[in-house]
Amino acid sequence: MFFYITNNNVLYYIGKLPHTVYIQIDGGSENANKLTLAMMNLIVAKATKLGCFELILTRLPPGHTHEDCDAQFGVIWTATRNKPILSPDEYKALVEECLGKSLPVRVVDIYNVPDYVKWFEGCIDPDLKK
Length: 130
Hints:
Layout: H1 2-14, E1 20-25, H2 34-47, E2 54-59, H3 70-80, H4 88-99, H5 116-120
Parallel strand pairs: 1-2
């Protein structure tokens, strides 16, 4: 989902995607699987219309400590650790305020999460191996 939010912000601010998009995933099975590969294929198919012609997917090695985006979560944690957050709107305002100092940030509430497993059903080659 981080990719979606990040590139939505790029689209919002400059109207197109960069030529190359980098996606970094943890090596866990919830990220490194056939569904992830299918999603990357879909992103490439859709993104070329928006100026992105290369997608680079990197998988962190076993034993790594942090992903690049973890630094942003550290900023959010520091801002919230001694401050009670009583509503989603308060959390949104806090995230936009603390991250907005260094990045253009727009928090978007996603009301539902599509069932991508079902959506891709029948589209992934069952013989595809790791």
